[in-house]
Design goal:
Elements (H helix, E strand, L loop, with lengths): L1 H20 L3 H39 L1 E3 L7 E10 L2 E10 L18 E4 L1 H7 L4 H4 L2 E5 L12 E5 L12 E6 L16 H23 L3 H13 L4 H32 L2 E3 L4 E3 L1 H6 L1 H21 L21 H16 L5 H41 L2 H12 L1 H25 L3 H14 L3 E5 L5 H9 L6 E8 L8 E6 L1 H6 L16 H10 L2 E5 L11 E6 L6 H9 L7 E4 L2 H4 L2 H39 L2 H5 L3 H37 L6 H31 L7
Length: about 725
């Protein structure tokens, strides 16, 4: 046992020494440092996501109302909705029945009648829209204990008047802390699998790709060392010890550095870029034990990748070291085929599992597609070498043989480009998945902004309507929208009623205007787009019945009056009121915020891929300049550098780019057919393919240039 431990220590020290002296050691150390940092960062982001979901549920439960019978009620409770810009706002109306009425978490005491408590984020983002006075008089802020997240927009409004007993939408509450409900950011919370799937598909896969590429930097010398150890009788355990010793320091350092952003997030709240979401530091802080364990798992995962990518092929008949010119392993092609099969079969699984199966197949397919590319270019290399031999073309002969003998080079160089094109395409497709209603809402807002505003209420008398009209901005029109459902066989239809003066302002004919032309205003066109069959009717008096079939429409002379209309509506002391611009409910839906999360994860993944591509290209420049330099002496021409580099690097990478573009186009179209939403931007795809083609040309040019510079100072060496 002691001898085995001593041997293991010696082998690890050999690995540590090799990591400081082997060719390309500095590049590999930085590559492994960046790879371990990237993998640990994604793993810790997973921990933070799980901890955040757990903290959200806990705080939502602490403020949830406990519904009881009316005889035991201490407070009346009702939920409403509003928006600031396109961001939804949760408005909770309360009416305490006793002086000791319960309060939810985050609230110390209820304000006076007509008082309002606002969350800090709602106060910050809504201050320009007059949020302090929209629902009543500002009485203070809600503390962090009562917020699901620091970025939550929620308000508690104590109504000034006693709610009518006939309104059964008020809930009798005995206490708080009995369940989360659907207020605030819990209203449309996606399951935790949704962000984790997006995180690992868009950022996790590039991080693992960076780890694989960095592990193989300078692999030629390590493969020769592993073969030598094998020839001397070393087992796989001995080779593993050397590889661990060589990678231990940069991997451990990268993992530790990844804890720095996690530590910052556990000390203060962090706003996550384009999403506007604020990460609660308390959730991150409480998950430190889980994060420590995840960090160890991340470190072991990167070490396992290093060990797994440095194996020797032994047939049992000889101990002679062999060169690393093996073909692409068949299991990689099989796994890629499994990924494609999962993508194809996703349409046949239950609806809820389709996206999960499709995403899993996508990750597997993109991870191993470069191996398929390498297999194709390996056969291409054999053809190029034979063609160069027949025609006496030295550059094509040498480049083809290198491509045939070293498919792993093409795998590493193509991996970043292949996954990069896939991520860009998926980002574009996902961000186009707004749905028909959300697309219509965005288009309506672009055409008429917020000049048509809908006010939904449980009922308004003529006096309340006139008081509301007097509070509107000057020049505003007030109309009533009524839904009519006569039943089969007749279709539902909508009537819009208003005074003759208001109708004429919309270019709509009154009863007496028999020769007036048809409606031509943009607002009327948008009303017809949303409500279909619309009939305009002249009415002398405007009221809203409490049957839920009517609502008010406000048409303002110019955009920018939505906040003023909301303030006028909430002064009616009607807690059931809801004010949105035409289609505004769909503008604030979770789907319109999805592109921000896709952008956050996708840009992170593209950053990892950029580093991976840079490391892979730099490693290839180091290798090719040493290998090509002697050709200047043998051929007497420097043009051979460009020729070999073009046939060995540029041409295979261009083939990989074309194959990737075709697969990406198929994959994107299949995804849209699966979810029946979104669209493919062929311009974005073409831009991605063109960029990768230019990168392929640049890699070949820079490789030739590096070899030419090395040739000027090359001297024979006993290597």
């Amino acid at each position: 046992m002691r001898t085995r431990m001593r041997t293991a220590g010696t082998l690890i020290r050999i690995g540590l020494a090799a990591g400081r002296s082997s060719p390309g050691d500095r590049l590999r150390r930085w590559g492994l440092f960046g790879a371990s940092l990237a993998v640990a960062f994604v793993v810790l982001a997973t921990v933070a996501t799980l901890a955040t979901y757990d903290g959200r549920e806990t705080r939502a439960d602490a403020r949830g109302p406990v519904i009881t019978g009316s005889e035991h009620a201490a407070l009346l409770y009702r939920e409403g909705a509003d928006s600031i810009g396109t961001r939804p706002v949760s408005v909770v109306f309360v009416h305490p029945l006793t002086s000791k009425a319960p309060v939810p978490a985050g609230v110390t005491d209820w304000p006076e009648p007509g008082g309002v408590l606002l969350s800090p984020e709602l106060l910050r983002t809504g201050d320009a829209e007059g949020i302090r006075t929209r629902y009543g008089s500002f009485a203070g802020t809600i503390t962090a204990d009562g917020l699901v997240t620091p970025s939550e927009r929620i308000a508690y409004v104590r109504v000034a008047d006693t709610p009518p007993a006939s309104d059964h939408r008020w809930l009798p509450v005995a206490a708080f802390g009995g369940g989360g409900g659907a207020t605030g950011e819990m209203a449309d919370q996606a399951p935790v699998t949704s962000p984790l799937t997006a995180l690992w598909a868009l950022a996790g896969l590039p991080a693992l790709s960076l780890a694989v590429i960095s592990a193989r930097v300078g692999s030629r010398s390590r493969d020769r060392r592993s073969s030598l150890l094998q020839a001397l009788g070393g087992t796989s355990r001995h080779r593993m010890m050397v590889n661990i010793g060589e990678a231990a320091f940069p991997v451990a350092l990268g993992t530790l550095v990844a804890f720095l952003p996690y530590a910052v997030a556990s000390l203060r709240d962090i706003r996550l870029g384009p999403t506007g979401y604020i990460l609660d530091h308390r959730d991150v802080r409480d998950a430190w034990p889980m994060a420590a364990g995840a960090g160890v798992v991340s470190l072991l995962a990167v070490v396992a990748i290093v060990v797994a990518t440095h194996r020797v092929h032994r047939d049992g008949r000889s101990t002679r070291p062999t060169s690393f010119t093996s073909s692409v392993p068949a299991w990689r092609l099989l796994v890629c085929g499994v990924g494609v099969a999962l993508v194809l079969c996703s349409q046949y699984v239950p609806r809820k599992a389709q996206l999960v199966v499709f995403t899993s197949g996508t990750v597997v397919m993109w991870a191993f597609l470069s191996s398929v590319v390498a297999l194709a270019t390996r056969h291409l290399g054999a053809w190029l070498a034979e063609s160069g031999r027949r025609r006496g073309h030295a550059g094509r002969l040498i480049g083809g043989r290198w491509t045939h003998a070293h498919p792993g080079v093409i795998v590493r160089l193509a991996l970043a480009m292949v996954i990069g094109i896939g991520i860009v395409a998926q980002m574009q497709v996902w961000t186009s998945r707004l749905g028909e209603h959300s697309k219509a809402a965005v288009a309506t807002h672009q055409r008429i902004k917020d000049t048509v505003i809908e006010l939904t209420t449980s009922g308004m008398t003529s006096a309340q309507t006139e008081r509301f009209r007097s509070s509107l901005p000057a020049g505003s029109l007030l109309l009533t929208r009524t839904m009519h459902d006569p039943g089969p066989p007749r279709d539902p239809w909508v009537s819009i009623e208003g005074s003759c003066q208001d109708l004429r302002a919309l270019h709509v004919a009154c009863a007496a205007d028999t020769n007036r032309p048809a409606a031509k205003s943009a607002q009327v066109d948008e009303l017809r787009r949303w409500y279909g069959d619309v009939k305009f009717i002249q009415a002398s008096r405007i009221t809203v019945k409490p049957d839920g079939m009517q609502s008010l429409l406000v048409v303002t002379p110019e955009p920018g009056h939505l906040a003023a209309v909301k303030k006028a509506a909430y002064t009616l002391s009607n807690p059931s009121v809801q004010v949105t611009e035409l289609g505004g409910t769909w503008l604030g839906s979770s789907r319109t915020r999805l592109p921000n999360w896709i952008q956050l994860f996708g840009v992170t993944g593209l950053l990892f891929l950029l580093v991976a591509g840079a490391v892979s290209a730099a490693a290839e420049f180091v290798r090719i300049r040493h290998a090509l330099a002697p050709l200047a002496v043998l051929t007497g021409r420097r043009r051979v550098f460009r020729s070999v580099s073009s046939w060995h690097l540029t041409f295979p990478l261009l083939i990989a780019t074309v194959m990737t573009g075709a697969v990406t186009a198929w994959h994107s179209v299949f995804f849209i057919a699966l979810v029946q939403e979104g669209s493919v931007s062929w311009t974005v795809l073409a831009a991605g393919v063109t960029t990768c083609a230019l990168v392929s040309l640049a890699v070949g040019f820079l490789g030739a240039r590096a070899a030419a510079r090395e040739a000027d100072q090359w001297r024979p060496a006993a290597d």
